[in-house]
Amino acid sequence: MSDHPDYLAWGTTSVGGFASLTDIEGVSRPYELAVGISRADRFSQEAAYRMDPRHPRDVRLPDAIRSTDGAAVPIVSPALRAEVERVEPAGVEFLPVTIYDHKGRVATDEYAVMNPTLILDALDLDAMEVEWSPLAEDTIDSCEGIVLAPVAVADAPALFRIQRMENTVVIRRDLAEALKEGGLTGLYFTELADVSD
Fold first, then answer.
1. Is residue 181 part of a domain?
2. Distance between CA atoms of residues 101 and 21, nearest Å
3. Has residue 1 been placed in a domain?
4. What's the gap between Cα 183 and its chain centre?
5. Long-range CB pairs of 179-182, under 8 A, 24+ apart, other chains included
6. Nearest to 9 by CA among 183, 181, 162
7. In terms of residue numbers, what domain contains 13?
8. pLDDT digits (tens, 9 = 90+) for 2-40
9. Average pLDDT of span 68-90
10. Which of 2, 9, 45, 138, CA to CA, is 20 to 30 A from 191?
């Protein structure tokens, strides 16, 4: 099984010394951030993250921060945001958050949740091994690997989500490589064929 070679799945990685974060606070219906529902018009100014107390010595902030909200809710630095914005991706919101350190002080208020809201019907289901949910019609329960239909992503932007797997953020390979080559920290990208859901 081969996936579409031009795209990867977005992720973040924990690196020693770099902070990780707990779940977002001060935001109603936070699950919407993990499935690409637009929040630009109704995002709380109180939105905040706290450094994970399980790692009290990790205080440095990487450019892409891992939180217990998961990879579907990317938290990005101003530098990473600027690099993403350079490619002018369609339908991507940047929602400002405050990050508190282990002592409850503001570490920064310059980071943002990156929320790709464009959801494409792009799965090549015939080429995938899919387990369907017995509880909800047309809902994927699990799969081993993602295969995109080339025609569905022929004109796709640099970042998007996939219908039926909205909690996966997909990034164009050239942008992912440029971000890594730019020395931005905390980034991790997975081949679509290796994604399990």
1. yes
2. 9
3. no
4. 19
5. 179/80, 179/83, 179/84, 182/83
6. 162
7. 7-194
8. 445 799 999 888 777 899 999 999 999 999 999 999 999
9. 93
10. 138
Separation CA 14–CA 187 (nearest Å): 9
Three-class secondary structure assignment of 142-194: EEECCCECHHHHCCCCCEEEECCEEEEEEEEHHHHHHHHHCCCCCEEEEEHHH
In angstroms, the Cα distances linking 143 to 2, 10, 13, 122 are 14, 17, 22, 15
How many domains does one find in the chain?
1
Query: Rounded CA gap, 175 and 120, in Å?
Result: 19
How far apart CA 58 and CA 45 sit, in angstroms, is 26
Please report whether residue 159 resides in a domain: yes
State the Rg of the chain over Cα: 17
Q: Model-level pTM?
A: 0.91
Q: At residue 111, does pLDDT exceed 80?
A: yes
- Give the DSSP letter of residue 31: G
How far is Cα 153 from Cα 160, in angstroms, rounded to an integer?
10
| φ/ψ (deg, to 5) at 115 | -120, 95
